[in-house]
Amino acid sequence: MLASVPAATLLGVTGHPVQVEVHVGNGLPSLSIVGLPDASCREARDRVRAAVLSSDLDWPPHRITVNLAPSALHKLGTGLDLALAVGVLVATGTVPAEAVARWAFLGELGLDGSVRSVRGMVPLVAGVRDLVDGVVVAPAAAAEAGVIPGLEVRCASTLTELVAALRVERPWPDLPEAPVVEEPPPPDIADVRGQALGRRAMEIAAAGGHHVLLAGPPGSGKTLLATRLPGLLPDLDDDVALEVTQIHSAAGATPSTGLVRRPPFRAPHHTASAVALIGGGTVAMRPGEVSCAHGGVLFCDELGEFPPSVLDALRQPLEDGVVRVSRARAAVTYPARFQLVAATNPCPCGPAPGGCRCSESSRGRYLRRLSGPLLDRFDLRVEIDRPEPGDLLGGEPGEPTSVVAGRVRRARARGAERGVTCNALLPTPKLDRWAPLTPSARRLLEALMRDGRLSGRGVERIRRVARTAADLDGRDGPLDDEQVAIALALRSSAGTAALGVAS
Amino acid sequence: MSRVGSGDDERAALATMLGLPGMGPARLTAVVDRAGTAVAAWELVRRGDLAGIDLRLVQRRAELVDRWVQAARGLDPADVLDRHRAAGVEVLLPDDAAWPSTLAHDPEPPRVLFVRGDVALLERPGVAVVGTRRCTAGGAQIAGRFGAGLAAAGLTVVSGLALGVDGAAHRGALGAGGIPVGVVGSGLDVVYPARHRRLWADVAERGVLVGEAPLGAAPERWRFPARNRIIAALSLAVVVVESGARGGSITTAEEATARDVPVLAVPGSVLAEQSVGTNQLLFDGSGIARDVPDVLAALGVQVPVGTPRLFDVLPADGLPGDVPAEGGGAVGAVAAVLSAVPASVERVAAAADVSVTDAVTALARLEASGAVRRVPGGYERVAVP
What pLDDT, on the 0 to 100 scale, is given for residue B232? Predict the structure, then answer.
């Protein structure tokens, strides 16, 4: 009287296959679960028993032992309920063993025998992809489970329905119609009036993957610009789309239509904790904002208001493209390759209309929070001015997102041969090969370096950005004055200038 | 313990009393005038026996006296004086030979002066260069130019060692090998602002550091107006580089006027917040300080023929240095619309009627040539070559 049913558990954003082994033997009636279940997993005992009894099925008056293999892996959550119930029913002979052999069962049970969806369906299904022919889930989870190609998806809304289907007494219930969701178009960059330099900065950021710092007074359109960046980015490729879909599923957001193809946009508030931003948690590990922004844009408005400890925590994912979270029970790695767009006021008061009222020292303190290694990550530091009233009221709308995105796509294609995904990642030794300078552009930069207004590292950033500007213009060959000049115009911010930092 | 003579007793009593909480020049004068000598005044303070003395305080007077009595309990004037001497700080009284002659006939002279560095340097003719702490980049540059130019003409440069204009003037003087005179509000061991630690040390070493507060005195707000009157009193002229409508440098100008010390102001754009105060001074009749020779002329110093002045070296097209030959039209058009008031790229492009791309290219060339610079808020013209 032994049964073994495939299922999966979620650790971080990865689904791990779990074999639910059920043994029904002699002894006092009891049910014990071994194999490192967490609290919610151990509670399955009561839920499953109630669900089986509610479904007019027999609960064996025997000693039941459940092992969750591999035993060394911590199992979290309620997603093993369904597999456990099926295991018991197989072990007691209610359901034939051969009917469940090539199926994974993923779902939670209600006391009335209803089957419910759980968080992270996409990674869970991905976890068992190579072990089974198909998965059985709750109807509400069918669309999400179907994101992973190559697996058959069946659903059952109650345990009764499931047992009838497995015993071939009744056909499988139909899958619910996938809801047709019309994705709203991304915000259009044509909405940004004036701000020629700011718009150009977002275009270059999209084409080169450069991180952007926007500095300007409130109402100057920093947020407006930042929200336009995802629309300019190309669709995600298959691998990244799958990663992004898994992350969002693990974070509890149900993807409505297949894989997530559009770059996500996340804008955590500055009161967010380091755990909310980076991911983790003591019991159920969840991906943080940086992982939810994987493949897309992380927008930190009011960067200067984020606690320094939180800003420090951003540095590792910016460097490595992944987040490693270690806890007592497990260490998990989340993908976190995002494009950082940050906005800041030049000083704590805004500056207020009619001039800044901050003291020199409070202004210095405010900007110093941004200095150092984090500031170093921003290839583009753009000072945004309040737009002219004329631009706001009657100005011509700028180019729409569709036109700019087309240029970005062509620019990215130009960069494909360089062996990096975007120009922001061009390694320093490769700059002479991929971003050489014309003699006059070189003279321009040399003059600024001589005066100490530009550092060696600053020049590298200028060359990467200028390379992207040239790609957008459809130009090959050495970078000329015009491209270097636009990079120079986008290099500085109120912050660095006020601090006297060579950028 | 050093032998303490009667002059030293006075010295010690004054230094000790100035270290009491809330004890400024005015209250000190009131107490000492009543008691006759500082030593006797110290006795009154220790006993709290201050009835009938005007402490310029109506409410909470008893509380203040109480705090003085409390604070005085642990103090020995001889110790206080020894501590100053050990720290290399001289405590000067008006009767001392080294007392600066500029203060001899001052309407509101300090009772005591704390000095670090060469006291004799205070006898040299000096000009004050002061201004707002929140100056523009251009203002700091002008202040440095005045500091250097006046130092080169053999004058000491008197200022308050504050952020902004004050610090820039002192740096200019030091850079030209001149003598800075720093007049500060706090004790000579309390560096304020902390960012100027290095500058304080340099001023004390190459010039002289002066204050009215004993060691350990915090830079409390009320100390600065009193400090400003000493700046005015020690100077032959006061140059205000940049100032808002109100502020310390306006106080300094007022104190200077009260002492018949000429005030000169650097004219600024009528659009610039930092020039509201200086332009008002000019309107009210101050001398104009376009460059160092203007100040020298106001002092009656012979300006050598052929000394280049700022308004002589600025070329007619407003562009100092080499304007890059390449780039043609846009560079000229962009250069023509730039001023000392910072403007963003978009504004520059609109004013010059060129594309943003042309504007940034022109600005990059101008920046590389040193004719413009980036400041918070955009680009401004560099006025001083």
Answer: 96
What does the alpha-carbon distance between residue A488 and residue A482 come to, in Å, rounded to a whole number?
Answer: 10
Residues B264 and B345 placed together within one structural domain of the fold: no
Secondary structure (DSSP) of A144-159: HHTTSTT-EEEE-SBH
Q: How far is A142 from chain B (nearest CA, A)?
A: 52
Of all residues in chain A, the percent with pLDDT exceeding 70 is 92
Q: Which of B134, B361, B370 minimises the CB distance to A482?
A: B361
Query: For position A497, what pLDDT does the model report?
Result: 41
Chain B, nearest residue to A503 by Cα: B374
pLDDT higher at A494 or B239 = B239
Measure CB to CB from residue A481 to each of B361, B370, B377 and give the nearest one. Answer: B361
Closest CB to B356 among A197, A385, A498: A197
Residue of B nearest to A193 (CA): B346
Residue B165, in any domain of the structure: yes
Best A482, A491, A496, A499 member to test B by mutation, with max B CBs in 10 Å, is: A482
What CATH number does the domain containing B345 carry?
Answer: 1.10.10
pLDDT category at A254 given cuts 50, 70, 90 is low
Name the stretches of chain B with pLDDT < 50.
1-5, 315-322, 325, 385
Residue where a domain stops, chosen among B276, B307, B338: B307
- Looking at the fold, whether B48 and B128 belong to one and the same domain comes out as no
CA distance to A262, A268, A408, per residue, from A184 (Å): 11, 21, 21
> How many interface pairs between A and B have CB atoms less than 8 angstroms apart?
79
Record: contact B378-A383, CB cut-off 8 A: yes
Range of the domain at B245: 103-108+113-307
Q: Which residues of B touch A385 (CB under 8 A)?
A: 344, 346-347, 377-378
Domain identity same for B71 and B125: no
**pLDDT tens for each residue of A416-467:** 788 888 899 889 898 998 999 999 899 888 888 887 778 888 889 899 999 9
Global pTM reads 0.70
Nearest to B374 among A346, A481, A492 (CB): A492
- Please tell me the CATH code under which domain A189-420 is placed: 3.40.50.300
B16 is a domain residue = yes
Domain range summary for chain A, segments of one domain joined by +: 2-166, 189-420
Number of domains making up chain B: 3
Task: Please state, in angstroms and rounded to a whole number, the distance separating the CA atoms of residues A317 and A202.
Answer: 22
Cα gap B16→B41, rounded to integer Å:
11
- Whether A2-166 and A189-420 share one fold: the answer is no
Amino acid letter at B382? Answer: V
Question: A497 in contact with B at a CB cutoff of 8 Å?
Answer: yes
- What element of type H or E holds A461? helix A456-472
Q: Are residues B289 and B337 in the same domain?
A: no
**A70 preceded by a cis bond (ω within 30 of 0):** yes
Least confident of A35-39, A482-486, B97-101, B150-154: A35-39
Q: Do the domain assignments include residue B91?
A: no
Please state, in angstroms and rounded to a whole number, the distance separating the CA atoms of residues A250 and A10.
8
| pLDDT at residue A350 is higher than 80 | no
Q: Give residue A494's pLDDT.
A: 41
Please state, in angstroms and rounded to a whole number, the distance separating the CA atoms of residues A108 and A125.
Answer: 15
CATH architecture of A2-166: 2-Layer Sandwich (3.30)
A217 near B CB under 8 A: no
pLDDT of residue A16: 92
Burial string for A316-332 (b: 16+ CB within 10 Å, else e) reads ebbeeeebbbeeeeeeb
Same domain, yes or no: B129 and B266: yes
Residue where one domain finishes, among candidates B289, B307, B325: B307
More confident residue, B326 or A265: A265
Whole-number Å distance between alpha carbons of B225 and B247: 10
How does residue A176 score in pLDDT terms, banded at 50, 70 and 90?
Answer: confident
Interface check B351 vs A, CB under 8 A: no
Let me know if residue B98 belongs to a domain: no
